[in-house]
Design goal:
The chain starts with a helix and ends with a helix. Helix content is 76%, strand content 0%. By secondary structure, the protein is mainly alpha-helical.
Amino acid sequence: MRFGSVWMVMALALGGCVASTDSDLTAEQRESRVRSHTTLAMGYINNGNFDRAVEPLKRALELDATDPEAMLAQAALLERQGDTALAGDAYRRLLSVNADFTRGRQNYAAFLFKQNQLDAACAEFDAVVADTLYVNRAQAFENLGVCRLRMDQIAPAVVAFERAYGLDGSRPLPSLELASAKYDQGDVQSAAFYYRAFLGNSRPNARSLWLGIRIADAIGDRNSQGSYELLLRNEFANSPEYQAWTEWKP
């Protein structure tokens, strides 16, 4: 276990012990210092300088052991270092004392998803989207849709993607997933609608081109079908989708 992780275990167990030199700080000064230390630590974490993140994060938690941003940074550092069990403990401790910290819950849900704990992840994403004031709610619905899709729960996945699209129609993934779902359901006009929305916000890939070929074929749009086929052949000739197209075409 790395030095930073050893310190994290101690921090989780002991909580915050405020240094005597900080005892005369006002609440505003303490909060400002916590923010400064946490911002510095997150800068190091985001740049992969994990060892350098330990000291400012330690100082932040000494000043306020229950500050949500500092606790989230602690969980993020443990996760990035690969200390999965400790990261899970840190996320749960964060939410036990900051139950309304939706961004922290979103990160915990994403952590659970990466650990393939899909039931728990979807439950946390459900809690995230329930916060109507959460600023990244479209992203949260998208994440919920992906989680439900991974569990083969198609109907709730579609509902989540529809909510994501309704909140932010510029997000390409919900549009593509809705186009795919509507095509599979036989609703080719809706599939074409969502596919056009996808094309307006993202470059095509092998999967999207193969879907577009079949949608265009279903609605009789030969020009678009030919364009998608040409792109698939020229750009993605080694893809499974290209192989599927060669077996499908007349």
